[in-house]
Every structure is written in structure tokens, then in C-alpha cells.
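Two proteins, back to back. First:
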Amino acid sequence: MIDLKHFIHKPNEIKNSSLYYDKFVFSEKRIMEKDNNTVNEIKKILNNDTKDNNIRKNMNRLRNINTLFILNDTKDIRDLASGKKDQVLEKQIKQRYKNILKDLVIKDLSKKIELTKNIRHNMINSLKNRYDIISYKIYTKTPFLVGAGIPSIDEIGFYWSRNLGIPIIPGTTIKGAFRKFLESKKSNFIKEIFGEEDKKGCVSFLDAIPIKDIELGIEYQTPHFQKYYNENQPPNDVYNPVPLNFLSVFKGNFRVDIIIERNNNKITEEIQNNFKNFIEFYGLGAKTSMGYGRFKINGQL
């Protein structure tokens, strides 16, 4: 069995950000939720005196407790001793894991991107004799967020390549958003491109992969009407805002590949005529109405 305590205190030894995000963080939280020993040990060391002076005086002993909790903040220690373990757990998990993920993405990033590029290059070359292929280089004009609805350790999810542990844009995301765009333009080729219930379309959209270094960042939003959303209360400005932070891709260069069955020249032309406006003005991912998910085409491959 994997000893998660080893990884939480040595995050540099974690190799795959996707597995950390999808598996380890949830496991850490479950273990911490069941951890009653930490609270008992803190109470024993402090002898029911939770004043700052007493906490600081005993800080070395507190830090030697065998726990997943990070015991270096006097308020967190006082809250744990007062039975507010859930609040401390929520705070520590949310503060810690996003920063670890940002560091993980940077680690060996160039090697991962080079491997991904080579795999895609070889794949596309093997298909060129049988399909028409449109390949774009795109780069971010604004941050983007894909996977907001994925189950996450906090309120807003994020999408990773499971095998490589780097952010990608799923082909299904591109396909769905592009369909909505063409529908808004009343295109005559919706069924041919995307298919119907009993017939597949003639176009496939591959995952957009990074081709140069990417940068993750942490964004913030502050919903003001929590009771309106959660308790069906009337929206009212007297409620305190609830700050939320979430990961997004701040900067990145990506490759988009679109595979089209041969002898569909009108379909190829329809995609080429519309994809630029779609990717540059319509956008991809969550929060596009707020300006997220805008890209710039930097030529074709």
C-alpha cells in the first residue's frame, strides 16, 4: 500500500499530476477525516492551553506528531484543539494541492511535451494516405479552464492527460463547442460533420496537445449569494462573499488535429472557413462568457 504521508511531506517525489489530482488528494482527505489521534496529541501537548504563546512554545513537539496535517500555523493548531478539524482539513487541502500541481506540471515538462509531440506526429503521418487532415497551431490569448464539472477536491474541476499528467483539451470538448458554433451559424453540414444517432460523422477531433511549455495559475471568484444557491433563499447583498480559487491554464501553445474522411471537400472547406472565428472569438471550455478560453491561430502544420 502507498504511504501517502511520504508524498504529502515530499511532494517533489510525486511524478504524475493527474494521479495526484484524481487519486492522492481524495485519499489524503479521507485519511485526514478519520484521523482523531492528531487532535488528541495536540490537546495532550498543549494541556488545554491554546493561547499563542503556549502553542509557539510547544511548536517543535507539535511538528513531531505523525500526521498528514501541516502543523505550523497557530490558528490551525488552535482550531484542531478546539474540535474544528473539518475546517482546518478543508483549508489545508485547498491551499496545498494547487501549488503542488503547479510545481508538478513544470517538472520534466519539456520531456513530456516532446514525447507527446512525437506520438502525435507519427500518428498523423500514418493517417495522411487515408484521410484529409487539418492541423492548427494555437496559443492562449486568455486563460482557459476545461473540466470544471469533473469531481474535484473543491468546487471546480480540471482536466488532465491521465497518462502524462499534463493539461490537454479533449477532442470531445472541441467537437461539442464547434458544433454549437456551427449550429449558431446555421451550417448546412451539421449531420455530415458530427453524425446522427444511427450514423457517425465523417470528422474526428483529436485532443489538443501542448507543443511548448505551459503555465498553470490560480484564479479566484467570490460568489455573493451562497444561500440563494444552496438553501433556496432570496438573493440578497447582505450575505458574505465566499472566495473560491481554481486552477486554469494561463499560457500555452497547443496543436489541434481534425481528421476528415476522404472526398469530402465541402466539409473540409466548411471547417477551414469557420474554425478560426470559432477558436478566436467563440472560445473553449468554461467561463467563455467572462472572456476565458480564447485562442489565436498561429498557422497550420
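And the second protein:
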Amino acid sequence: MNIFDALMAGCQKFITSLPNRCLLCHQQLCSAATGICHTCLQSCLYTSPVCLGCGRELQTLQRYCGACLALQPIPVIAPASYHSLLGPLIPKIKYQAQFTALPPLVLALERRLAMLVAHNLTVLPQALLPVPLHPHRLRERGFNQAWMIASMLGQKLQLPVVDNLLRRVVATVPQTGLDGRARRRNLRDAFMLTADLPYQRIALVDDVVTTGTTVDEIARTLAPWTPDLQVWCLARAEAPGM
């Protein structure tokens, strides 16, 4: 049994020992569902097209809004906004090991990806790259939620998960509460590659994308090897007013 199988088996054992209730509305779930009921999940998901660059709502299904079409930012694919009811739930996965929320959210992301691929708005990458934690943070937390999400998607989509080439070499302070300049300074040179990447198309996987500072710094690190980078996450935080 590999590390992922052992971790997920332990999570499943823990999950089955708990009352099967929705984490958002606390109503009883059917036996086949975990974490979030269908009604709550559907109320959180995007109901209209959104720009993959900035998250702005669009009138028609397309890759970018007018402003992002000119800038061509790194596309961020998520099934929902962080400003929905999912907002308070995402930190519970990270800080309280609320793993029951992962299966329905990963499934929602998988379906979002399938829709975008079907409409030629994105293509599947060659590999998945979870955002790494610093070894000290990983020991404290006991798991990396980005790695868990990437592993679940990798199994579903039959894509390799590359978790040994990108390292977090600086134990940065939490980004919460920092302004844009402080976030960039905090993450400067925080990541390094241990070897050349054998892939040109990579999806960087994380739980949430807020300002995009982490994405930008990793993209800078990967730039010599990976010209085609996209980001997959469970939720994204759009700028105010979007």
C-alpha cells in the first residue's frame, strides 16, 4: 500500500465513524454521499461562465474576458468561488483535516474540467504538480491538502502526479493578512526545482487561489521548462467587484 492509499484508507475509516451529515446545512446525507449534500454543493458552484484569468462572470462561454485576452494570464480552473458558502469550508480541510469535503469538491472540479475540455477551452496537462509545503509545515500539519487533491484527480484522470521535483525551500509566514507587496516579498525564491522538468504542459494543483502570488512565484520557477501552465483548485477568490 502506498502513502496515498494508506492516508485515504485512514481518512475513510474516520469518515465512516462519524454521523453522515452535510458540513454546510447539517442535514442527514444519503449513504452514497459524503461531506456536502447535493443541494448545498449546487448552490456553491458557478452557474454562469467565468473568465479563467480573473474569475469575472461572462455572458458567453469563452476562455478569457476582454482584458485578460490581451494579458493572457495563467488560467485558473475551479468549480466555485471562494466567496460562496465554500469559503469557510476550505480552511477546515487545511487546518481541521475535514476530509469529508474532498470527494464532492474534487468531483465538481473534475466535471468542470471535462466541460472546458469538451468546449476546447483547455486541454489536459501531461502531469499534475501539487503546491508543496515546507517540510516543517508538513510535519506540523501531517498532510498536504494540495497533494491529496492532485492524487485524487490523478487517479480519476490517469495523469501522473509529480511531487518530488518542486520543493518549498523557505518556511514563509502565512499569506493571510499580507498585502500584495508583502505577499510577493514573502514568497520570493521560496521554491526550487530539484531537477529539470520532463513536461511542457503542467497543471499546478492547490486547494484555493486567492491573489495568485503563490502561482506567480511557482510559474517563475518553472518558466524555463514549462511554457504551458494552468492551475486547478477547489475554489478561487475573485477580486472585489467581480
